[in-house]
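Worked example 2:
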Amino acid sequence: MNARFTIIGNRENGPASVADADLAHRTITGRYMISPGGYIADVLASDLILDICGGDSFTDIYPDKRFAYVATTKIIPILATKIIPILAGKPLVLSPQTIGPFSRQPHSAIAGWICRKAHAVFTRDALSLEAVATLAPGVAARQVVDVAFALPYTPRPKTPGRLQVGLNVSGLLMNGGYAGGNEYGLGFDYADLTHRLITALLARGDCDVHLVPHVLAPHLPVDDDGAAADRLKAAYPALQRHPDFTSASDAKSFISGLDFLIGARMHATIAAFSSGVPVVPISYSRKFEGLYGALGYRWLVNARGMDTETALARIMDALDNRDTLAADMAAAQPIIAAGLEAYVAALAALFRETAQ
């Protein structure tokens, strides 16, 4: 059985993350979504739609415009990345992702309808599984794991003699969220914590600190890790600012050579975890607790439940206890392997079913 894939996603600033001569690539824009020759045509030409939604966008914690692209679009409300396949009678698979939270209408009703109409629903954590049960009782959703754990990379050798510490600073959190003003209800000032953390790391004298931008969005400055890293590099010349990565695998390859990573972007922390680098994720939404809770990994900074002193102390304690973090990560590997295997097996069955 041969399969041909069309990759539909947001604009990328560098080369396509997945490059293959047999792959077609589409960029989501308003025009593409509403044009009969755009998304609609691609859906009608497909036998199966796998919608991973960026891993974390099927929620209403982000602005309405983002939810609109995910589900409803503001231009013609009934058109949507998920609704169009359903209305076209195409099997829609919600690939492993965080689902929810949904705290208001009509978001909850739309999300519940999509879950009920989907051909299959996969979550990457138990909290999302519970959300599906609330949104769409009776839907047979399955919990697997984030597919980013399987992202290929080239292992990089460690640097002897000095600790190599990565700092993945979120441009979104540095700006207080899309709307500013502590949009996510953090228990501390994220920018203040970042400055204090950099000062503490540089004061140790035994480590090199690398700024590791993960979300590059020059077209959306409030969300751009690269711009935040540039400002920090200007303020602290001793920091090492890695050039913008050309792909997710490129970023993961670099991270694999570090000794420790502090990160506020989910997939930056997964890159560390899945390449054996002790990591402290800084959680601003339940997607972190959901994913890492399922893995039994307790080394998170809950930005909504800690003050600055507690968060800073936890990170510095984790840095000094990297062996313990590494052991906890190793203990989670069978869970990750089982989740990936279950999803691959389910996809194989779906492909066979569709091909009949």
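Residues 64-79 have pLDDT under 50 and may be disordered. The CA atoms of residues 61 and 101 lie 7 Å apart.
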